[in-house]
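Researcher: Let's try something more involved. This one mixes different molecule types, so please make sure each is placed in the same coordinate frame as the others.
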Amino acid sequence: MTYLLGLDGGGTGCRAALADLSGNVLGTGKSGSANIMTDMNTARLNILDATEAAFKKAGIDAGQTKTVFAVLGLAGANVGGNGAKLEAMLPFQKSLVYSDGVIALQGALGDHDGTVVILGTGSAYVTRLGKDIRFAGGWGFKVSDLGGGARLGRDLLEETLLAYDKFHPSSPMTAAVLERFGGNPHRIVQFAHSATPSDFGTFAPTVFEYAAKNDAVAVALLDKTIGQIERGLDATMSPAPMRLSLLGGLGALYGPLLSPHYRAMLQAPLNDALTGAVQLAARNFAATPAETAHG
Amino acid sequence: MTYLLGLDGGGTGCRAALADLSGNVLGTGKSGSANIMTDMNTARLNILDATEAAFKKAGIDAGQTKTVFAVLGLAGANVGGNGAKLEAMLPFQKSLVYSDGVIALQGALGDHDGTVVILGTGSAYVTRLGKDIRFAGGWGFKVSDLGGGARLGRDLLEETLLAYDKFHPSSPMTAAVLERFGGNPHRIVQFAHSATPSDFGTFAPTVFEYAAKNDAVAVALLDKTIGQIERGLDATMSPAPMRLSLLGGLGALYGPLLSPHYRAMLQAPLNDALTGAVQLAARNFAATPAETAHG
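Model: All components are placed in one shared frame. Result:
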Protein backbone atom coordinates (compact mmCIF):
# COMPACT_ATOMS: atom_id res chain seq x y z
CA MET A 1 0.00 0.00 0.00
CA THR A 2 1.24 3.50 -0.87
CA TYR A 3 0.06 6.83 0.52
CA LEU A 4 0.18 10.51 -0.36
CA LEU A 5 1.37 13.07 2.15
CA GLY A 6 0.72 16.81 2.08
CA LEU A 7 2.57 19.05 4.48
CA ASP A 8 2.23 22.76 5.24
CA GLY A 9 5.13 24.06 7.34
CA GLY A 10 6.58 27.30 8.57
CA GLY A 11 8.03 29.14 11.53
CA THR A 12 5.01 28.57 13.74
CA GLY A 13 4.46 24.85 13.08
CA CYS A 14 3.80 22.00 10.64
CA ARG A 15 0.59 20.30 9.62
CA ALA A 16 0.63 16.99 7.74
CA ALA A 17 -2.23 15.19 5.98
CA LEU A 18 -2.00 11.54 5.01
CA ALA A 19 -4.20 10.61 2.04
CA ASP A 20 -4.91 7.67 -0.23
CA LEU A 21 -3.81 7.79 -3.84
CA SER A 22 -7.03 9.56 -4.82
CA GLY A 23 -6.28 12.34 -2.37
CA ASN A 24 -8.87 11.37 0.28
CA VAL A 25 -7.46 12.48 3.62
CA LEU A 26 -7.13 9.60 6.11
CA GLY A 27 -5.59 11.47 9.03
CA THR A 28 -3.80 14.69 9.95
CA GLY A 29 -1.07 15.57 12.45
CA LYS A 30 0.69 18.61 13.84
CA SER A 31 4.11 19.43 15.23
CA GLY A 32 6.56 22.26 15.82
CA SER A 33 8.30 24.78 13.60
CA ALA A 34 9.85 23.92 10.24
CA ASN A 35 12.06 26.84 9.33
CA ILE A 36 14.38 25.42 6.68
CA MET A 37 16.20 28.75 6.34
CA THR A 38 17.46 28.78 9.92
CA ASP A 39 17.45 25.15 11.10
CA MET A 40 17.14 22.38 8.51
CA ASN A 41 17.60 19.55 11.03
CA THR A 42 14.88 20.66 13.42
CA ALA A 43 12.62 21.25 10.45
CA ARG A 44 13.25 17.67 9.28
CA LEU A 45 12.50 16.26 12.75
CA ASN A 46 9.26 18.22 13.08
CA ILE A 47 8.17 17.20 9.58
CA LEU A 48 8.65 13.55 10.57
CA ASP A 49 6.79 14.10 13.86
CA ALA A 50 3.80 15.61 12.08
CA THR A 51 3.88 12.75 9.58
CA GLU A 52 3.97 10.13 12.34
CA ALA A 53 1.03 11.86 14.06
CA ALA A 54 -0.96 11.74 10.79
CA PHE A 55 -0.23 8.01 10.42
CA LYS A 56 -1.34 7.42 14.00
CA LYS A 57 -4.55 9.42 13.52
CA ALA A 58 -5.27 7.39 10.36
CA GLY A 59 -4.65 4.16 12.28
CA ILE A 60 -1.90 3.10 9.88
CA ASP A 61 1.47 1.66 10.85
CA ALA A 62 4.13 4.42 10.65
CA GLY A 63 6.46 1.80 9.17
CA GLN A 64 4.73 2.72 5.90
CA THR A 65 6.44 6.16 5.99
CA LYS A 66 9.06 5.10 3.46
CA THR A 67 6.36 4.30 0.89
CA VAL A 68 4.94 7.82 0.96
CA PHE A 69 4.77 10.25 -1.99
CA ALA A 70 5.04 13.67 -0.34
CA VAL A 71 4.48 17.29 -1.34
CA LEU A 72 5.69 19.82 1.21
CA GLY A 73 5.12 23.58 1.15
CA LEU A 74 7.70 25.44 3.18
CA ALA A 75 8.75 29.08 3.46
CA GLY A 76 12.21 29.60 1.99
CA ALA A 77 12.13 26.49 -0.24
CA ASN A 78 13.06 28.66 -3.24
CA VAL A 79 16.10 30.23 -1.51
CA GLY A 80 19.64 28.92 -1.91
CA GLY A 81 18.72 25.36 -2.85
CA ASN A 82 17.00 24.77 0.51
CA GLY A 83 14.16 22.82 -1.07
CA ALA A 84 16.44 20.36 -2.88
CA LYS A 85 18.57 19.92 0.26
CA LEU A 86 15.54 18.98 2.32
CA GLU A 87 14.23 16.61 -0.38
CA ALA A 88 17.49 14.65 -0.10
CA MET A 89 17.14 14.42 3.70
CA LEU A 90 13.59 13.02 3.84
CA PRO A 91 12.86 9.26 4.17
CA PHE A 92 9.83 9.24 1.87
CA GLN A 93 9.69 7.28 -1.40
CA LYS A 94 9.47 10.59 -3.26
CA SER A 95 9.49 14.16 -1.94
CA LEU A 96 8.75 17.44 -3.65
CA VAL A 97 9.44 20.59 -1.62
CA TYR A 98 7.72 23.75 -2.86
CA SER A 99 7.52 27.25 -1.54
CA ASP A 100 4.63 27.65 0.89
CA GLY A 101 3.02 30.05 -1.60
CA VAL A 102 2.60 27.27 -4.17
CA ILE A 103 0.47 25.06 -1.92
CA ALA A 104 -1.50 28.09 -0.71
CA LEU A 105 -2.21 29.03 -4.35
CA GLN A 106 -3.31 25.49 -5.21
CA GLY A 107 -5.52 25.29 -2.15
CA ALA A 108 -7.17 28.67 -2.72
CA LEU A 109 -7.60 28.62 -6.52
CA GLY A 110 -7.63 24.89 -7.28
CA ASP A 111 -6.72 24.64 -10.97
CA HIS A 112 -7.82 28.18 -11.89
CA ASP A 113 -5.51 30.96 -12.99
CA GLY A 114 -5.28 33.98 -10.72
CA THR A 115 -3.46 35.61 -7.83
CA VAL A 116 -3.39 34.95 -4.13
CA VAL A 117 -2.04 37.49 -1.68
CA ILE A 118 -0.99 35.97 1.63
CA LEU A 119 -1.60 38.67 4.22
CA GLY A 120 -0.48 37.28 7.54
CA THR A 121 2.45 38.55 9.56
CA GLY A 122 4.14 39.18 6.21
CA SER A 123 2.73 39.68 2.73
CA ALA A 124 3.44 37.78 -0.48
CA TYR A 125 1.91 37.51 -3.95
CA VAL A 126 1.63 34.27 -5.93
CA THR A 127 0.18 34.31 -9.43
CA ARG A 128 -0.59 31.43 -11.80
CA LEU A 129 -1.06 31.93 -15.51
CA GLY A 130 -1.27 28.53 -17.15
CA LYS A 131 1.85 26.58 -16.21
CA ASP A 132 3.66 29.70 -15.07
CA ILE A 133 3.78 30.45 -11.33
CA ARG A 134 5.24 33.81 -10.26
CA PHE A 135 6.15 35.13 -6.84
CA ALA A 136 6.41 38.75 -5.75
CA GLY A 137 6.89 40.52 -2.45
CA GLY A 138 7.40 38.40 0.64
CA TRP A 139 11.02 39.43 1.19
CA GLY A 140 10.45 39.75 4.93
CA PHE A 141 9.52 42.31 7.56
CA LYS A 142 12.67 44.41 7.44
CA VAL A 143 12.69 45.45 3.79
CA SER A 144 9.38 44.22 2.36
CA ASP A 145 5.99 42.73 3.28
CA LEU A 146 4.00 45.97 2.99
CA GLY A 147 0.46 45.36 4.17
CA GLY A 148 1.48 42.45 6.38
CA GLY A 149 0.52 42.50 10.03
CA ALA A 150 4.06 43.12 11.28
CA ARG A 151 4.48 46.25 9.17
CA LEU A 152 1.00 47.52 9.98
CA GLY A 153 1.44 46.94 13.72
CA ARG A 154 4.85 48.58 13.67
CA ASP A 155 3.35 51.56 11.79
CA LEU A 156 0.76 51.91 14.54
CA LEU A 157 3.47 52.11 17.22
CA GLU A 158 5.34 54.68 15.09
CA GLU A 159 2.17 56.80 14.72
CA THR A 160 1.62 56.57 18.47
CA LEU A 161 5.08 58.03 19.10
CA LEU A 162 4.62 60.67 16.38
CA ALA A 163 1.35 61.65 18.05
CA TYR A 164 3.05 61.74 21.47
CA ASP A 165 5.60 64.19 20.03
CA LYS A 166 2.80 66.13 18.29
CA PHE A 167 4.51 65.56 14.92
CA HIS A 168 1.30 63.89 13.69
CA PRO A 169 -2.29 64.21 14.95
CA SER A 170 -3.34 61.94 17.79
CA SER A 171 -6.59 59.99 17.74
CA PRO A 172 -8.56 57.69 20.03
CA MET A 173 -6.49 54.82 18.60
CA THR A 174 -3.06 56.36 19.32
CA ALA A 175 -4.30 57.38 22.80
CA ALA A 176 -5.47 53.81 23.48
CA VAL A 177 -2.15 52.32 22.34
CA LEU A 178 -0.15 54.75 24.47
CA GLU A 179 -2.40 53.85 27.39
CA ARG A 180 -1.68 50.15 26.79
CA PHE A 181 1.98 51.05 27.49
CA GLY A 182 1.05 52.87 30.68
CA GLY A 183 1.26 56.23 28.93
CA ASN A 184 5.05 55.83 28.77
CA PRO A 185 6.64 56.08 25.31
CA HIS A 186 9.84 54.47 26.63
CA ARG A 187 7.87 51.29 27.15
CA ILE A 188 6.95 51.29 23.45
CA VAL A 189 10.65 51.61 22.62
CA GLN A 190 11.46 48.73 24.99
CA PHE A 191 8.77 46.56 23.43
CA ALA A 192 9.98 47.37 19.91
CA HIS A 193 13.59 46.64 20.83
CA SER A 194 12.96 42.92 21.25
CA ALA A 195 9.71 42.52 19.31
CA THR A 196 9.52 39.80 16.66
CA PRO A 197 7.49 40.40 13.50
CA SER A 198 4.66 38.39 15.13
CA ASP A 199 4.84 40.63 18.21
CA PHE A 200 4.41 43.74 16.02
CA GLY A 201 1.62 41.90 14.19
CA THR A 202 -0.45 41.64 17.38
CA PHE A 203 -1.19 45.37 16.93
CA ALA A 204 -2.53 45.05 13.37
CA PRO A 205 -6.12 44.08 14.26
CA THR A 206 -6.34 47.26 16.37
CA VAL A 207 -5.96 49.33 13.18
CA PHE A 208 -8.92 47.57 11.50
CA GLU A 209 -10.98 47.83 14.67
CA TYR A 210 -10.50 51.62 14.92
CA ALA A 211 -10.83 52.19 11.16
CA ALA A 212 -14.31 50.66 11.43
CA LYS A 213 -15.07 53.43 13.95
CA ASN A 214 -13.68 56.08 11.53
CA ASP A 215 -10.61 56.84 13.64
CA ALA A 216 -8.69 59.28 11.40
CA VAL A 217 -5.23 57.81 12.04
CA ALA A 218 -6.48 54.25 11.53
CA VAL A 219 -8.26 55.19 8.29
CA ALA A 220 -5.13 56.96 6.99
CA LEU A 221 -2.91 53.98 7.86
CA LEU A 222 -5.21 51.52 6.08
CA ASP A 223 -5.62 53.84 3.07
CA LYS A 224 -1.83 53.86 2.70
CA THR A 225 -1.56 50.11 3.18
CA ILE A 226 -4.38 49.26 0.76
CA GLY A 227 -2.70 51.53 -1.80
CA GLN A 228 0.49 49.49 -1.34
CA ILE A 229 -1.36 46.18 -1.70
CA GLU A 230 -3.09 47.39 -4.87
CA ARG A 231 0.18 48.56 -6.41
CA GLY A 232 1.30 44.97 -5.90
CA LEU A 233 -1.88 43.71 -7.59
CA ASP A 234 -1.45 46.18 -10.47
CA ALA A 235 2.01 44.70 -11.05
CA THR A 236 1.15 41.02 -10.67
CA MET A 237 -2.33 40.59 -12.17
CA SER A 238 -3.10 40.71 -15.87
CA PRO A 239 -5.35 43.59 -17.03
CA ALA A 240 -8.10 41.06 -17.82
CA PRO A 241 -10.23 39.97 -14.86
CA MET A 242 -8.71 37.04 -12.97
CA ARG A 243 -9.50 35.21 -9.78
CA LEU A 244 -8.13 36.91 -6.67
CA SER A 245 -8.06 35.50 -3.14
CA LEU A 246 -6.68 37.17 -0.03
CA LEU A 247 -5.34 34.63 2.44
CA GLY A 248 -3.71 34.77 5.86
CA GLY A 249 -5.07 36.19 9.08
CA LEU A 250 -5.64 39.67 7.61
CA GLY A 251 -6.93 38.59 4.19
CA ALA A 252 -10.58 38.62 5.21
CA LEU A 253 -10.15 42.03 6.88
CA TYR A 254 -8.57 43.66 3.83
CA GLY A 255 -10.99 42.17 1.27
CA PRO A 256 -13.97 44.49 1.83
CA LEU A 257 -11.65 47.53 1.81
CA LEU A 258 -10.22 46.96 -1.68
CA SER A 259 -11.25 49.27 -4.49
CA PRO A 260 -14.26 48.11 -6.60
CA HIS A 261 -11.99 46.95 -9.46
CA TYR A 262 -10.29 44.34 -7.28
CA ARG A 263 -13.28 43.63 -5.04
CA ALA A 264 -15.10 42.42 -8.15
CA MET A 265 -12.43 39.74 -8.69
CA LEU A 266 -12.38 38.51 -5.09
CA GLN A 267 -13.22 34.87 -4.47
CA ALA A 268 -13.24 33.05 -1.16
CA PRO A 269 -10.39 30.51 -1.11
CA LEU A 270 -11.60 27.03 -2.19
CA ASN A 271 -9.40 25.18 0.29
CA ASP A 272 -6.50 25.71 2.66
CA ALA A 273 -2.82 25.24 1.90
CA LEU A 274 -2.65 21.76 3.42
CA THR A 275 -5.38 20.60 1.05
CA GLY A 276 -3.41 22.28 -1.74
CA ALA A 277 -0.38 20.14 -0.82
CA VAL A 278 -2.44 16.95 -0.92
CA GLN A 279 -3.87 17.98 -4.32
CA LEU A 280 -0.39 18.56 -5.68
CA ALA A 281 0.76 15.18 -4.33
CA ALA A 282 -2.16 13.53 -6.13
CA ARG A 283 -1.38 15.54 -9.27
CA ASN A 284 2.30 14.70 -9.27
CA PHE A 285 2.29 11.12 -8.09
CA ALA A 286 -1.08 9.50 -8.72
CA ALA A 287 -2.61 8.49 -12.03
CA THR A 288 -6.01 10.05 -11.39
CA PRO A 289 -6.88 13.71 -10.70
CA ALA A 290 -7.17 14.65 -7.04
CA GLU A 291 -10.51 14.58 -5.28
CA THR A 292 -9.77 16.08 -1.92
CA ALA A 293 -11.72 16.66 1.22
CA HIS A 294 -12.64 20.31 1.67
CA GLY A 295 -11.86 22.50 4.69
CA MET B 1 44.03 72.52 41.60
CA THR B 2 40.58 71.62 40.19
CA TYR B 3 39.62 70.87 36.61
CA LEU B 4 36.52 70.72 34.45
CA LEU B 5 35.75 67.68 32.34
CA GLY B 6 33.41 67.51 29.37
CA LEU B 7 32.53 64.12 27.92
CA ASP B 8 30.56 63.15 24.82
CA GLY B 9 29.73 59.45 24.75
CA GLY B 10 27.62 56.98 22.84
CA GLY B 11 27.54 53.59 21.23
CA THR B 12 30.49 54.24 18.96
CA GLY B 13 32.87 55.78 21.51
CA CYS B 14 33.65 58.45 24.10
CA ARG B 15 35.55 61.70 23.80
CA ALA B 16 36.69 63.59 26.91
CA ALA B 17 38.05 67.13 27.19
CA LEU B 18 39.91 68.32 30.29
CA ALA B 19 39.69 72.08 30.85
CA ASP B 20 40.65 74.68 33.41
CA LEU B 21 37.95 76.41 35.43
CA SER B 22 37.50 79.01 32.69
CA GLY B 23 36.75 76.26 30.17
CA ASN B 24 40.05 76.41 28.29
CA VAL B 25 40.69 72.90 26.99
CA LEU B 26 44.02 71.46 28.21
CA GLY B 27 43.84 68.03 26.61
CA THR B 28 41.43 65.56 25.02
CA GLY B 29 41.18 61.76 25.01
CA LYS B 30 39.18 59.02 23.36
CA SER B 31 38.04 55.52 24.22
CA GLY B 32 35.43 52.88 23.45
CA SER B 33 31.65 52.75 23.60
CA ALA B 34 29.59 54.17 26.46
CA ASN B 35 26.14 52.73 26.08
CA ILE B 36 24.58 53.20 29.50
CA MET B 37 21.34 51.57 28.38
CA THR B 38 22.94 48.20 27.67
CA ASP B 39 26.12 48.05 29.74
CA MET B 40 26.61 50.57 32.52
CA ASN B 41 29.89 49.03 33.79
CA THR B 42 31.67 49.05 30.44
CA ALA B 43 30.42 52.59 29.89
CA ARG B 44 31.93 53.62 33.23
CA LEU B 45 35.27 51.99 32.39
CA ASN B 46 35.46 53.65 28.97
CA ILE B 47 34.53 57.03 30.45
CA LEU B 48 37.43 56.68 32.90
CA ASP B 49 39.78 55.58 30.09
CA ALA B 50 38.92 58.63 27.99
CA THR B 51 39.37 60.83 31.06
CA GLU B 52 42.77 59.34 31.82
CA ALA B 53 43.82 59.86 28.20
CA ALA B 54 42.78 63.52 28.41
CA PHE B 55 44.82 63.97 31.63
CA LYS B 56 47.82 62.36 29.94
CA LYS B 57 47.49 64.57 26.86
CA ALA B 58 47.31 67.64 29.12
CA GLY B 59 50.43 66.45 30.98
CA ILE B 60 48.57 66.41 34.30
CA ASP B 61 48.76 63.64 36.91
CA ALA B 62 45.65 61.45 36.60
CA GLY B 63 45.59 61.32 40.41
CA GLN B 64 43.72 64.63 40.05
CA THR B 65 40.69 62.76 38.62
CA LYS B 66 38.84 62.88 41.94
CA THR B 67 38.97 66.70 41.94
CA VAL B 68 37.17 66.98 38.60
CA PHE B 69 33.82 68.70 37.98
CA ALA B 70 32.35 66.74 35.09
CA VAL B 71 29.49 67.15 32.62
CA LEU B 72 28.76 64.09 30.54
CA GLY B 73 26.38 63.85 27.60
CA LEU B 74 25.23 60.29 26.98
CA ALA B 75 22.46 58.70 24.94
CA GLY B 76 19.78 57.22 27.20
CA ALA B 77 20.63 59.39 30.24
CA ASN B 78 16.97 60.43 30.48
CA VAL B 79 15.66 56.84 30.46
CA GLY B 80 14.85 54.89 33.63
CA GLY B 81 17.13 56.84 35.96
CA ASN B 82 20.26 55.80 34.01
CA GLY B 83 21.83 59.24 34.33
CA ALA B 84 21.51 59.35 38.13
CA LYS B 85 22.78 55.76 38.42
CA LEU B 86 25.91 56.62 36.46
CA GLU B 87 26.49 59.84 38.44
CA ALA B 88 26.64 57.73 41.62
CA MET B 89 29.21 55.38 40.05
CA LEU B 90 31.73 58.01 38.89
CA PRO B 91 34.80 58.96 40.96
CA PHE B 92 34.72 62.69 40.12
CA GLN B 93 34.18 65.41 42.70
CA LYS B 94 30.88 66.25 41.02
CA SER B 95 29.22 64.67 37.99
CA LEU B 96 26.23 65.76 35.94
CA VAL B 97 25.00 63.31 33.33
CA TYR B 98 22.79 64.79 30.61
CA SER B 99 21.23 63.35 27.52
CA ASP B 100 23.61 63.60 24.53
CA GLY B 101 21.14 66.01 22.92
CA VAL B 102 21.71 68.60 25.66
CA ILE B 103 25.45 68.93 25.04
CA ALA B 104 24.87 68.90 21.27
CA LEU B 105 22.37 71.74 21.66
CA GLN B 106 24.76 73.74 23.85
CA GLY B 107 27.62 73.20 21.42
CA ALA B 108 25.62 74.14 18.34
CA LEU B 109 23.58 77.08 19.65
CA GLY B 110 25.72 78.31 22.56
CA ASP B 111 23.34 80.26 24.76
CA HIS B 112 20.81 81.04 22.01
CA ASP B 113 17.28 79.70 21.89
CA GLY B 114 16.45 77.44 18.99
CA THR B 115 16.26 73.87 17.73
CA VAL B 116 18.88 71.35 16.73
CA VAL B 117 18.00 68.24 14.74
CA ILE B 118 20.56 65.49 15.08
CA LEU B 119 20.46 63.63 11.77
CA GLY B 120 22.91 60.77 12.03
CA THR B 121 22.00 57.10 12.03
CA GLY B 122 18.90 58.17 13.96
CA SER B 123 17.08 61.48 14.19
CA ALA B 124 16.22 63.55 17.26
CA TYR B 125 15.01 67.09 17.97
CA VAL B 126 16.21 69.23 20.89
CA THR B 127 14.70 72.67 21.45
CA ARG B 128 15.62 75.36 23.96
CA LEU B 129 13.26 78.19 24.85
CA GLY B 130 14.75 80.09 27.79
CA LYS B 131 15.34 77.60 30.60
CA ASP B 132 13.11 75.00 29.01
CA ILE B 133 14.77 72.19 27.02
CA ARG B 134 12.48 69.82 25.11
CA PHE B 135 13.20 66.57 23.31
CA ALA B 136 11.22 65.00 20.50
CA GLY B 137 11.74 62.05 18.18
CA GLY B 138 14.81 59.94 18.72
CA TRP B 139 12.91 56.82 19.86
CA GLY B 140 15.12 54.57 17.78
CA PHE B 141 15.28 52.93 14.37
CA LYS B 142 12.46 50.45 14.80
CA VAL B 143 9.57 52.79 15.58
CA SER B 144 10.97 56.32 15.09
CA ASP B 145 13.93 58.29 13.76
CA LEU B 146 12.35 59.31 10.46
CA GLY B 147 14.92 61.06 8.31
CA GLY B 148 17.83 59.32 10.04
CA GLY B 149 20.34 57.42 7.94
CA ALA B 150 19.16 53.99 9.07
CA ARG B 151 15.57 54.62 8.00
CA LEU B 152 16.62 56.25 4.74
CA GLY B 153 19.04 53.43 3.85
CA ARG B 154 16.45 50.81 4.74
CA ASP B 155 13.91 52.64 2.55
CA LEU B 156 16.35 52.46 -0.34
CA LEU B 157 16.65 48.68 0.01
CA GLU B 158 12.86 48.42 0.20
CA GLU B 159 12.48 50.50 -2.98
CA THR B 160 15.06 48.31 -4.69
CA LEU B 161 12.99 45.19 -3.94
CA LEU B 162 9.74 46.95 -4.93
CA ALA B 163 11.41 47.90 -8.23
CA TYR B 164 12.64 44.31 -8.69
CA ASP B 165 9.04 43.10 -8.31
CA LYS B 166 7.83 45.95 -10.61
CA PHE B 167 5.53 47.19 -7.80
CA HIS B 168 7.30 50.57 -8.02
CA PRO B 169 9.32 52.14 -10.88
CA SER B 170 12.98 51.29 -11.08
CA SER B 171 15.66 53.92 -11.60
CA PRO B 172 19.43 54.10 -12.10
CA MET B 173 19.71 54.16 -8.29
CA THR B 174 17.66 51.01 -7.65
CA ALA B 175 19.49 49.27 -10.50
CA ALA B 176 22.86 50.23 -8.99
CA VAL B 177 21.85 48.97 -5.53
CA LEU B 178 20.58 45.66 -6.92
CA GLU B 179 23.86 45.35 -8.81
CA ARG B 180 25.77 45.92 -5.57
CA PHE B 181 24.06 42.73 -4.33
CA GLY B 182 25.05 40.81 -7.47
CA GLY B 183 21.60 41.31 -8.98
CA ASN B 184 20.21 38.86 -6.39
CA PRO B 185 17.34 40.12 -4.21
CA HIS B 186 17.89 37.25 -1.76
CA ARG B 187 21.22 38.83 -0.89
CA ILE B 188 19.43 42.06 0.07
CA VAL B 189 17.19 40.00 2.36
CA GLN B 190 20.24 38.27 3.88
CA PHE B 191 21.95 41.61 4.46
CA ALA B 192 18.83 43.09 6.05
CA HIS B 193 18.35 40.07 8.30
CA SER B 194 21.45 40.86 10.35
CA ALA B 195 21.95 44.57 9.51
CA THR B 196 22.36 47.01 12.40
CA PRO B 197 20.93 50.53 12.07
CA SER B 198 24.46 51.69 11.15
CA ASP B 199 24.64 49.04 8.43
CA PHE B 200 21.39 50.32 6.90
CA GLY B 201 22.74 53.85 7.29
CA THR B 202 25.65 53.12 4.96
CA PHE B 203 23.10 53.30 2.09
CA ALA B 204 21.78 56.76 3.00
CA PRO B 205 24.48 58.80 1.20
CA THR B 206 23.59 56.94 -2.02
CA VAL B 207 20.12 58.54 -1.93
CA PHE B 208 21.59 62.07 -1.75
CA GLU B 209 24.12 61.26 -4.45
CA TYR B 210 21.43 60.08 -6.90
CA ALA B 211 18.97 62.83 -5.96
CA ALA B 212 21.64 65.33 -7.04
CA LYS B 213 21.51 63.61 -10.45
CA ASN B 214 17.68 63.86 -10.49
CA ASP B 215 17.12 60.13 -10.08
CA ALA B 216 13.32 59.94 -9.75
CA VAL B 217 13.28 57.33 -6.95
CA ALA B 218 15.96 59.19 -4.99
CA VAL B 219 14.13 62.52 -5.35
CA ALA B 220 10.85 60.93 -4.22
CA LEU B 221 12.51 59.31 -1.18
CA LEU B 222 14.12 62.59 -0.10
CA ASP B 223 10.92 64.55 -0.72
CA LYS B 224 9.11 62.19 1.63
CA THR B 225 11.88 62.32 4.22
CA ILE B 226 12.21 66.11 4.15
CA GLY B 227 8.45 66.34 4.60
CA GLN B 228 8.82 64.15 7.71
CA ILE B 229 11.65 66.28 9.08
CA GLU B 230 9.68 69.48 8.51
CA ARG B 231 6.59 68.08 10.25
CA GLY B 232 8.92 67.58 13.21
CA LEU B 233 10.13 71.17 12.91
CA ASP B 234 6.54 72.46 12.63
CA ALA B 235 5.79 70.71 15.92
CA THR B 236 8.92 71.69 17.82
CA MET B 237 9.78 75.24 16.70
CA SER B 238 7.83 78.32 17.68
CA PRO B 239 6.10 80.19 14.83
CA ALA B 240 8.52 83.10 15.31
CA PRO B 241 11.91 82.70 13.61
CA MET B 242 14.42 80.84 15.77
CA ARG B 243 17.89 79.49 15.28
CA LEU B 244 17.99 76.06 13.62
CA SER B 245 21.01 73.80 13.21
CA LEU B 246 21.11 70.38 11.56
CA LEU B 247 23.77 68.19 13.13
CA GLY B 248 25.02 64.64 12.57
CA GLY B 249 26.46 63.07 9.47
CA LEU B 250 23.43 63.90 7.31
CA GLY B 251 22.72 67.38 8.70
CA ALA B 252 24.81 69.19 6.12
CA LEU B 253 23.24 67.13 3.30
CA TYR B 254 19.66 67.88 4.35
CA GLY B 255 20.19 71.60 5.02
CA PRO B 256 20.16 72.86 1.41
CA LEU B 257 17.07 70.74 0.67
CA LEU B 258 14.82 72.28 3.33
CA SER B 259 11.99 74.57 2.27
CA PRO B 260 12.82 78.34 2.18
CA HIS B 261 10.99 78.95 5.49
CA TYR B 262 13.37 76.70 7.41
CA ARG B 263 16.42 77.32 5.24
CA ALA B 264 16.20 80.97 6.30
CA MET B 265 16.63 79.97 9.96
CA LEU B 266 19.57 77.63 9.36
CA GLN B 267 22.81 78.43 11.16
CA ALA B 268 26.03 76.48 11.07
CA PRO B 269 26.64 74.91 14.50
CA LEU B 270 28.90 77.11 16.64
CA ASN B 271 30.75 74.19 18.24
CA ASP B 272 30.59 70.45 18.62
CA ALA B 273 28.93 68.52 21.43
CA LEU B 274 32.18 67.99 23.37
CA THR B 275 32.69 71.73 23.54
CA GLY B 276 29.07 72.00 24.64
CA ALA B 277 29.82 69.63 27.55
CA VAL B 278 32.82 71.74 28.62
CA GLN B 279 30.69 74.90 28.41
CA LEU B 280 28.04 73.31 30.60
CA ALA B 281 30.70 72.21 33.11
CA ALA B 282 31.95 75.81 33.29
CA ARG B 283 28.37 77.06 33.58
CA ASN B 284 27.42 74.64 36.34
CA PHE B 285 30.61 74.50 38.37
CA ALA B 286 32.74 77.58 37.80
CA ALA B 287 32.10 81.10 38.97
CA THR B 288 32.77 82.78 35.63
CA PRO B 289 31.02 82.24 32.28
CA ALA B 290 32.65 79.73 29.97
CA GLU B 291 35.17 80.84 27.38
CA THR B 292 35.82 77.70 25.44
CA ALA B 293 38.12 76.72 22.63
CA HIS B 294 36.29 76.34 19.35
CA GLY B 295 36.34 73.31 17.05
